[in-house]
């Protein structure tokens, strides 16, 4: 061995954790999670629980509350489905093809993340209004794209599309083409290879993208109020009704109950979708 040969790394020097140990790191992480996320949510639930059964029944029996919840959930569900379909298609194009302007298209996907929701709402309302670029094209056919649930869905698709794209895109990049090409070389058609090879691998990511787009659309406020018209019993969404109740005399209790109800229903939907995603992932690993 020469004089300048480097010593072999020992177990002590081979790997040094850049962050503190599990106990300290877990403690810091849970503390920040509790202060930023869990504490406000727990305070909201405790405050709503203190209103009693009568307060809850009085709030949820309000026709305006029931209508706003129906509009919010229906529009968020429809928008999440549409955003998932087209988001998966955009992710497929970005991963599988090379074409001029691909990097620009990839950057534009993230635009709704950075754009203020109020700006998005004003822009969408200007485009889809009866005098807008798109609105005036469909207006002669009796199609109205604003001041109805169609406008809400359009706004929520705009907001939810990046979640679907960015959830599916890395899975497609990691999947590659080898399994698909192997299935085709064994005699499977492209459609069969897509259905039997690619889609099972993408299904957990698709469910995650749907859940993120749905949850984001359920609580969206800024981009919706400009295009929905906010007509009571027709296009009034739950977040807007919460804001209205806050500025009414003795309306804070109703706002708290409605916010808690929206939180619990959103959380239940996310838990169910994540459980289904984990189930599909486990099934894919077992089949593999």
Automatic annotation (TrEMBL):
It is a multi-pass membrane protein. It comes from the Bacteria. Pfam families: BPD_transp_1. CDD domains: TM_PBP2. Keywords: Membrane, Sulfate transport, Transmembrane, Transmembrane helix, Transport. NCBIfam families: 3a0106s02, permease_CysT. The complex is composed of two ATP-binding proteins (CysA), two transmembrane proteins (CysT and CysW) and a solute-binding protein (CysP). This is Sulfate transport system permease protein CysT. It comes from Lysobacter gummosus. The gene is cysT.
